[in-house]
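ASSEMBLY PREDICTION REQUEST
Request ID: AP-0331
Submitted by: J.K., bench scientist
Number of chains: four
Total residues: 682
Priority: normal
Notes: Please return the full assembly, not individual chains.
Input sequences:
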Amino acid sequence: MLSERRLEVLRAIVQDYVGTEEPVGSKALTERHKLGVSPATVRNDMAVLEEEGFIAQPHTSAGRIPTDKGYRLFVDRLAGVKPLSAAERRAIQNFLDGAVDLDDVVGRTVRLLAQLTRQVAVVQYPSLSRSTVRHVELLSLAPARLMLVLITDTGRVEQRMIDCPAPFGENPLADLRARLNSRVVGRRFADVPQLVQDLAESFDLEDRPAVAVVLSTLLETLVEETEERLMIGGTANLTRFGHDFPLTIRPVLEALEEHVVLLKLLGEAKESGGMGMTVRIGHENAHEGLNATSVVSVGYGSGDEAVAKLGVVGPTRMDYPGTMGAVRAVARYVGQILAES
Amino acid sequence: MLSERRLEVLRAIVQDYVGTEEPVGSKALTERHKLGVSPATVRNDMAVLEEEGFIAQPHTSAGRIPTDKGYRLFVDRLAGVKPLSAAERRAIQNFLDGAVDLDDVVGRTVRLLAQLTRQVAVVQYPSLSRSTVRHVELLSLAPARLMLVLITDTGRVEQRMIDCPAPFGENPLADLRARLNSRVVGRRFADVPQLVQDLAESFDLEDRPAVAVVLSTLLETLVEETEERLMIGGTANLTRFGHDFPLTIRPVLEALEEHVVLLKLLGEAKESGGMGMTVRIGHENAHEGLNATSVVSVGYGSGDEAVAKLGVVGPTRMDYPGTMGAVRAVARYVGQILAES
DNA sequence: ACTGGCACTCGCCACCGTTGAGTGCCAAGC
DNA sequence: GCTTGGCACTCAACGGTGGCGAGTGCCAGT
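STATUS: Completed
Returned structure:
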């Protein structure tokens, strides 16, 4: 078992290493932190910590650096979440207020988070799957061509072209529009398929094929667009990574471009409740390109339920308390903004 | 004046340097290219080229590398546009077909262009300013709350919430919707303000404030959203830049995140006609961060007029003929895709 | 006008000894 | 039984040195 002091040593190592980016030795440790013991003692503790796999030395006779396992212990037991300063909180509010539409909210959030943490920010668009239908609109563009517009309670709008098998008159169209809305407005996406199931039957025989196409397009939109979008920013911060560049950031940039990977990453981070913060460190990330990075993510939403995730991607050697504080604070404010609009 | 052979030497230098990324000397040149003269002669030519500012040496007794001015001459007079192979053209078509909506088209284009050129791709969304109105829709979300949906002929959809000063009945709403559409559908954005100018007057006095709000919101949307969006991709290709990393790619990544800068960059590239290809080399780019990069851009559009730009950003040391070929080919295919939809 | 020859420059690399931070171990002390 | 000071050892980093070779500029000869 690790004594209290050994944990303290680990904490000190993590803090120093995060600050200096250089392996930290026993002497420097005792000087910077009042551990109350001599370097020799610290050396013994370090030997134990190394044996247990929490720290490692890059090469013989260099200082120690934390391993992924060491960071994990640090995050789980040694570090809290550093709350933001009043000034920072004010900055967030100023930055986020004044967003005009959903794109703008997400865009501002990404920039804000990147700036605040000095890392790469990832913000998922509010997901459709948990939201409800605010309105469905059908527009006739040409005799046999419709446009379906779906509006969600998070302010998102999706549109689809529909080519009908046969021309579709204005009256049945208005009829369909009205009935469709009366059935699905305010309902959750997941419930929609069931709610429109028998809608086609109440139409004239000649119109049924067209109605069927409309309905299936609607369902398709609901399913397809549950596939989520996201926005990233602050990639320039990657250049602060290390000194051995191309090898380090190449795979990260590649991973960041594969939005599918990122979405999976955010999606998997669901432990400890929907709104809980998740920290995945180094090799805990399934994607190989992100094995040298940590991902801090948290759910956010307009209500008490999370509708999407946001987070940052940075080197495993990051300021976890600060980053977690910033991520959590931003998520809260974004939630507020969404709830207001 | 530069003799024919000197130009040939410059061309050879550019080609070799682009291939090897290393300064090229007189001996290597005569070996790889059949210039028909000895290294000594080439050395004399090089001395002249250097005096004229087309090439430079990184340090005494190293080979020469082209300067921005040298690349400029190469692009203007020595290099053509390399057409794509049949296989590449087929790949483009396969890749671009099957896009379901505008976002998808743009997204695929970015990935395609990045892959094809192995550089950073930038694609501007089809601009609203030159497009026409396909449909305007007004939805009643709550008694005094409307949603305005604007659909363009390029498939873009913009929406705005409107809070009315007073409740607005279904009938006047339908009326407004019908009249609005009859006036503006098929018209260019620029003409809309004039077309709806006196529309409010034909409504009942009590409804006029609401109508006025709707109209002003519409106009606002037209103006605001003429501010264009773009998508970028292939940033991982930046890691192939040079060996002296952080300094090189940092400013580029920063510039790429400032979409405003990129839009200006694309916007300025309008010489030689709307659809003409523009190449801006090194310091020709106003933005400092892009002083070590070249930008190859071209307009694309569904008709014979360009509605937006796309291009790539890469090191000044790039394969200009190949890049230009790829950019032009992609622009053409995207134009076709847009015209079909 | 082109060419071969020649002396010169200078970045690159491999080698080498020095330096210093950091370690592991051990015997003595609290 | 921890803790501590001492000590020998290791090894990355640094700076200097010398040889190598690619590349240049100049000049005299054809």
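REVIEWER COMMENTS: The first strand of chain B starts at residue 55 and ends at 56.
SIGN-OFF: pending second reviewer
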